[in-house]
Amino acid sequence: MKMYTFQRCGTPMRTAGFTLIEMIAVLVLIGIVMTIVGGKVMQNFQNGEYKAGVAGVHSLEMKVQAYELDNGSPPQSLNDLITRPGNASNWNGPYAKESDLKDPFQHPYFYKAPGDHGDFDVIFYGKDGQPGGDGLNKDYGNWQ
Asked: pLDDT digits over 121-142, tens only?
């Protein structure tokens, strides 16, 4: 879109500005760049959530060990870290908060006592919350 102003002598002079085509081209380029950058940001965010899930396994492992030191054996379930079970005579909890029992993807951590790899196993099943998988869905256990 060209805009003209007229000088005194009647000769048209073009004023500074952008044409509609130039503006559309710039908006399309901005959209492409935002799509690429937004995808990378989202991927990095999800990688961070996965790493937080792995850290959560180690945090729960320490809380279970604290329970085990006080009571002589690991808890039967992770809920025993929050509320005192009937068989825990030396319970000094709560050892964890309810929010500690869920991974960053809002799935519960898997717990097994006795475990296949020691006294107990704490497992993070990844983004999908299901056993198996790779990438962001890869399982991670406290023995790794």
From this structure: 999 999 998 998 888 899 999 9
**Under CATH, to which class is 40-141 assigned?**
alpha beta
Beta strands at 12-14 and 4-6: parallel, antiparallel or unpaired: antiparallel
Tokens of 81: 């870290």
Over residues 67-101, the pLDDT tens digits come to 999 998 899 999 999 999 888 788 887 999 999 99
Q: Quote the CA–CA distance of 77 and 79 in Å, as a whole number.
A: 5
Of 89, 77, 83, give the one whose Cα is nearest residue 115: 77
- Written as six digits, the tokens of 78 are 């992770």
CA 53/CA 122 separation, integer angstroms: 11
- Distance between CA atoms of 133 and 125, rounded to whole angstroms? 8
